[in-house]
Write a structure and sequence with these properties.
With about 325 residues, the chain is an alpha/beta fold. It folds into two domains: about 1-125 and about 250-320, D-Maltodextrin-Binding Protein, domain 2 (3-Layer(aba) Sandwich), CATH 3.40.190; about 125-225, Periplasmic binding protein-like II (D-Maltodextrin-Binding Protein, domain 2, 3-Layer(aba) Sandwich). It contains eleven helices and eleven strands. The chain has helices spanning about 1-15, 45-55, 75-85, 95-105, 140-150, 165-175, 190-195, 205-215, 265-275, 280-290, 300-320; strands spanning about 30-35, 65-70, 90-95, 115-125, 125-130, 155-160, 180-185, 200-205, 220-225, 250-255, 290-295. It has a six-stranded mixed sheet with strand order 2-1-3-10-4-11, with helices on both faces. It has a five-stranded mixed sheet with strand order 7-6-8-5-9, with helices on both faces. Helix 2 links the parallel strand 1 (about 30-35) and strand 2. Helix 1 packs antiparallel against helix 11 (about 300-320) and helix 4 (about 95-105) packs across helix 11.
C-alpha cells in the first residue's frame, strides 16, 4: 500500500496545478520560523535546518528562515503551537509521520495535519536499524532471537512511542514473537550516545542522523527500511530480504503552514520550495543522505496527506495500537 501511496502522489504532482500567479502577492517581511518537534541533531531538526540553509544559499527569499525546536508530547507541543499561530504567514512547520499518528491515538492531540495548510511534501525517507560495530548481533534475526530468549534485557532506543521506530517495533514484535524494551529519548544525539555507550542494543535511525558513524565503522547497519537497497548500503538487506513480512512504514517530510494561512502565502512558499527542490544545494543533500526526492505542490500534498493518514491508520491497527479517532 505504501508503494501505491507514493506512486499515486507522484501522479498527483503531474496533474495538479500550482496556485495561480495572480494570487501570489505575498512576500515575507520578517524572519520565518520553521517549527520542528524534536531537539537539535534529530531527523526533523536536520531537515528543517537544511531547508533553511538551502533557501538562504540559493537566495530564494528576502528574509532569513530559522528553526524553532518545540519539543514535548511526541510532537503535540509543536502541533499545538502551529494552531496557536492560526493565519500567520511567517510560521511554517516541518511535518513527519508522528504529526499524523498523534491525533489518531491521543485524545488530547486534536490537531490534524490535514486541517492545517499543506504546502509541500519534499522527501520520502528510508531508515536503517543499527547496532554497535562490536555487537554480537550480526543480523536483525539475531536481535529478534535474543529478544525471544531474554525479553526486556534487549533494549531499543527510540523517540516518541508513536514515531516510526516505535511502530516498526510493534510490527516486528507481532511478526517475530519477541518482546524487548523501548527506551525513549527526545533527541537523536541521546539515542546514538546510548547505543555507543552500551546502554541500549539497537535503534532505528534515518541516514542523516547516523551516516557518519556508520561510515566511520562505529555502527553497523543490519537491515534497511526502504523499498530497495540504498547506495552505500548495498550489502544490507531490506526487511523483506531479511525475512520479515511487515509493512514498509513510510516517513514523509514536508512543510505546512498554520491553519488558515492565506492562499497567497501558501502559493509563495509552494513556489519557493519548488525552486529549492530543484537546486544543486538540495539535490546534494538528498544524494548524500540517501533520501528520495518527492516534491509535491500544495494541492497534491493535501491529497497525499489524506492518503498518508489512512496508510498510517492501517499500520497502527496492524501494530495493535488503540485508535481514538
Amino acid at each position: 500500500m505504501v508503494r501505491v501511496l507514493v506512486v499515486a502522489s507522484a501522479a498527483a504532482l503531474i496533474v495538479s496545478g500550482s496556485v495561480p500567479a495572480a494570487a501570489q502577492s505575498f512576500k515575507p517581511t520578517k524572519p520565518i520560523e520553521i517549527v520542528v518537534h524534536n531537539g537539535p541533531g534529530s531527523g526533523p531538526d536536520i531537515f528543517g535546518r537544511t531547508v533553511a540553509q538551502a533557501i538562504e544559499q540559493e537566495k530564494l527569499a528576502p528574509v532569513r528562515f530559522q528553526v524553532s525546536n518545540k519539543v514535548g508530547g511526541g510532537g503535540v507541543t509543536a502541533a499545538n503551537y502551529m494552531v496557536e499561530r492560526k493565519g500567520d504567514s511567517h510560521v511554517l512547520g516541518a511535518f513527519t509521520s508522528v504529526w499524523m499518528t498523534n491525533p489518531l491515538v491521543q485524545q488530547a492531540a486534536s490537531t490534524k495535519v490535514v486541517d492545517m495548510s499543506p504546502i509541500s511534501r519534499l522527501v520520502v525517507e528510508p531508515a536503517v536499524i543499527v547496532v554497535r560495530a562490536d555487537s554480537p548481533f550480526k543480523t536483525l534475526r539475531d536481535v529478534m532471537d535474543a529478544a525471544r530468549k531474554e525479553g526486556s534485557k534487549i533494549r531499543q532506543a527510540g523517540g516518541s512511542p508513536l514515531a516510526r521506530d516505535a511502530l516498526v517495533r510493534q510490527l516486528l514484535m507481532a511478526e517475530s514473537g519477541g518482546k524487548w524494551a523501548f527506551v525513549s529519548f527526545p533527541a537523536a544525539s541521546e539515542r546514538l550516545a546510548a547505543l555507543l555507550g552500551g546502554h541500549v542494543d539497537f535503534l532505528l535511525v534515518e541516514p542523516p542522523e547516523a551516516g557518519e558513524l556508520i561510515r566511520a565503522g562505529k555502527l553497523r547497519a543490519v537491515v534497511q527500511i526502504a523499498e530497495k537497497r540504498l547506495p552505500g548500503f548495498e550489502d544490507v538487506p531490506t526487511l523483506p530480504e531479511a525475512g520479515f513480512k511487515i509493512p514498509n512504514v513510510p516517513q514523509a517530510r514536508g512543510i505546512i503552514g498554520p491553519p488558515g494561512m492565506p492562499a497567497d502565502a501558501v502559493a509563495y512558499y509552494q513556489d519557493m520550495l519548488a525552486k529549492m527542490s530543484r537546486s544543486a544545494t538540495w539535490q546534494k543533500f538528498l544524494t548524500s543522505n540517501q533520501l528520495d526526492d518527492a516534491y509535491l505542490d500544495a494541492k497534491a500534498t493535501t491529497a497525499f496527506l489524506a492518503d498518508y493518514e489512512q496508510a498510517l491508520r492501517d499500520i497502527l491497527i496492524q501494530s495493535g495500537q488503540k485508535l481514538v479517532r
